[in-house]
Fold this sequence. Notes:
Growth Hormone, Chain: A, 18 helices
Amino acid sequence: MADFLSRTLARFFGLGPADVRNLAFLYFATFIMRAAAFAGVAVMQDVSARTLDALGRGLLFAVYPLAEIATVGYLGTLCDRVGRKRILVFAHLVTAAAVFLFIPSISSVVPTGVQPFLVANRAQLMAFFDLVTFGGLVGGFGAAFLALNAFGISDATVLAVGGIGVTVSVVMVQFLVRETPFTPETQRGTLELLRTVLRNRDIQRLLPVYVPVVALYGYVITFTDNLLGAGSEGSATTTQLLIIVASLGIPLGASLAVSGRLSDRVRLRRPFMGLGLACFGGLAILLALAARPGGGADTAQLVSRWPLIAILAAGAGTFPPAALAYLGDVVGHSVTGTAFGIYSVIFGSGLIVGPVLGGALTQALGPLAFAVIALGLIGISGVGVLFIREPLKFPRTPMGPETVVPPGKR
C-alpha cells in the first residue's frame, strides 16, 4: 500500500519517490506544528474572552504577528544563504516552546489572567503546502475550539497536547526531512536579498490582494466565539457547534487540496482568487444575518443553512492555494526563501490589522462589525485582483542572478 501510494503521488506531482517521501514527512510535520500552534490561539481566545474587552483582545492577538514580522524577513534570507532544514528545525523548536510557555500564562494557572509577555515568548506543490498550513489552522483551531466550548476540556490540557504534537514534529523534521539541493547566496546580503524581492512589481501588486484576506482570517480567529454564539454566555449546543464547524472546515480543507490542482491545469490564478473572495463574502453575509442584537449568533439559523455554508466554504478554499501559488510563479529559485519570508510579513500584517481593527469596531458597532469589516476587506482585495497579471501567461520578472539547479538534483 505504501509503495502504491508513493508511486501514485510521484506520478501526480512529477517527482521521484525519494522527493515524495521527503515532502510527505515535511508536510505532515508542518501540519502538526500549525495545528498545535493554532490550538494555542484558540485557547488564547477562550481565555481573553473572559478577561479582556474587544479592543484588548485585538491588541493581544497582534503580539504574535508583530513578532513574526520582526523575524521572518531575516530568517527567509537565511534559508537562501545557509539552507532550509536548519531554519525548519529552529522554527519547530521555537513553536514548541511557545505552546508550552503559554500554559503558565492562562488564567486557570495564573489567577491574574493572560500574561502578554509569555504569549510573546510555497504551484501545485504550493497548494498542498497551503493545505497543511491552512489545514493546520482550520484543523487545530477548530478542534481546540470544539474541545473548549463543546466538550469542556481545560485550557491547559489542550495546550499540553499541542505542545507534545509540536515536539513530535521537531523530531520528524530533524531525522526524517532531508535538506534540498541549493546554491548558497553568498554574494548578496540580507538587505540586498530583501530589496531584490520587494522590487518585484508582481509581489507589490499582491499586497492589497492578500493582506485584507488575512486580516479577515485574523478577525475570525479572534472573535469566533462572538460569531458562533459560543463561550460561557453563548447559546450554542454541542451538536450545533459540531454541525457548523464541520460544514465550514471539511469543505474548506477539501477545496484547498483540489483547487490547487485545477488552477495548475487551466494555468490560471485570478479566477480562483475571485471565486474565493466572492464565497468569503457570502459566508460573511450569512454570519452577519445570524448575528443577535445583543451579541452572539442565532446558531439554529446557521445550522438550518449548513448546506449553503458548506458550498460557500468550498468556494472560499479556492483563494489560498491560488494566491500562494501566484507567489511561487513570480519569484526565482535563488530567492525563494526570501520571497516566502516576505509572504510571512504579508500574512503577519494581515493578522495585525484584522484583530486590532476588529476589536475597535466590535466595541463600537457590536454585531454589525463583522459585516462591515468582512465586506470592506473583501472589496479591497477584489479590486486588487483586477490589477494583478496571470503569471503563467507571461515571462517571470527578473529577480537578479538566477542559479540553475541541474535537473538531476532538483
